[in-house]
Amino acid sequence: MKQVLIIGNGFDIAHGLPTSFKDFSKYLLENILIPDLRQFVLETGKSEYYTDGIRDIHNQHLFPVGYNTNYSLDGILLNLSKEGFIESLLDNKMIFLEYLKNNFLSKLYREEDEFWFDVESTYFDLLKIIPNTYDRSSHKMQILRLNEELKQIKTLLQEYLVTLNVNYQSPVSNFIEELFQNFKNEEKVNDIVVIDFNYTKTIRSFNITGYEHYPIHGTLESDIIFGWGNDKDEDYIEIKDLKNDNFLTNFKTHHYLKNNYYQLIHHSLIRIKEKFNIHILGHSLGLTDKSLLKEIFESDNCERIYLYLRSDQYNSEPLVSKQIGVENEYTKLTMAISRIIDDQMARIKVVNMQYSNYFPKNPN
């Protein structure tokens, strides 16, 4: 029987990598957007990321920074240390972020608590609104702009992830190596397959051999796949009927055909009549990857689905709170699965919480 590991962003986060969109948004502010604003005011008078509207703040010499009086933007930049300047702008970020040229990025910041956790879903939400707007003549312009804005965010994300380094000596790394060894020690296990939804090379960097690795969304050394992955959504079907290819630019189903990973996964897990178990580590099972996950989970070859829970997230909490946290995490994952496959199938295939596994270790 094959053992299939599905790993997502939580896998990287468990290794100490700041790969959440919250981390990315903080990086953008501190390393891209604020330095660009500083350059605009003190050096060139030009900005790559802001519209000319930012000049209104500058020309009016008003820029509140949490003090009792107002200070000129020049004064803040000239008199504060770099750290103090960044801190001041972070405290008042919406004063200047509303002037971003990238409207999509500005929306993510303006409604940060609601949107930053899932950029891809937010993109689809904005995309499906466009066909219903009154001015049909502007549809093409709107979709082209949204696609360009997502492309810029994708490029910035890829540049950010390249800067990160994995802690290969973490408890999670040790756990993964032991997990692979346990699979290999089982007499009935003849293949190990890793379906990697991350862009990073975390698992590829371990001292592990003898498994198939499919980075389905690409790697940082290539053009990564970033967009929406639920081609069963009714809105997606309506969008296809518009016969405007610009609406389909960022749907994963089309990008999967740019490499052979999808075909290899389909051949290995579905076409070949061999049973397999699934082990989910750090994947939220969101709708943005529904199409591929649905095919795998619903395959007659799929026997059991194991949900690995991040027990280490609750180590600082009392035992009762820790148990509640783990239970809530398990329930959240089962709810996510119910949006991918039929509830009855989920009840049959998903291993119940009593027999679920933890990484990097049991919370007790």
**Main CATH class of the domain at 2-17 and 167-218 and 259-358:** Alpha Beta
How much is the average pLDDT? Answer: 83
What gyration radius follows from the Cα positions, in whole Å?
Answer: 23 Å
- Quaternary state, please? single chain
Distance between the termini: 30 Å
Structural class: alpha/beta
Q: How do the strands of the widest beta sheet line up side by side?
A: 3-2-1-4-5-6
Low-confidence parts, pLDDT < 50 over ≥5 residues?
64-70
Portion of residues in helices?
40-55%
Strand content: 5-15%
How is the CATH topology of the domain at 2-17 and 167-218 and 259-358 named?
A: Rossmann fold
Description of the molecule:
The chain is α/β, with parallel strands linked by helices and 364 residues long. It has a domain at 2-17 and 167-218 and 259-358: 3-Layer(aba) Sandwich (Rossmann fold), CATH 3.40.50. Helix content is 49%, strand content 9%. The chain contains 17 helices and six strands. The protein has a six-stranded parallel sheet, sandwiched between helices. β4, α15 and β5 (302-309) form a beta-alpha-beta unit. The longest helix has 24 residues, at 139-162. The protein is globular and about 75 Å long. The chain starts with a strand and ends in a 6-residue tail after the last strand. The relative contact order is 0.13. The model is unreliable at 64-70 (pLDDT under 50).
Describe the SSE topology.
Blueprint (H helix, E strand, L loop, with lengths): L1 E6 L1 H6 L6 H22 L11 H7 L12 H7 L2 H10 L1 H5 L5 H8 L1 H4 L3 H11 L9 H24 L8 H15 L5 E6 L15 E4 L18 H7 L11 H4 L5 H11 L4 E6 L8 H9 L3 E8 L9 H20 L4 H7 L7 E2 L6
Parallel strand pairs: 1-2, 1-4, 2-3, 4-5, 5-6
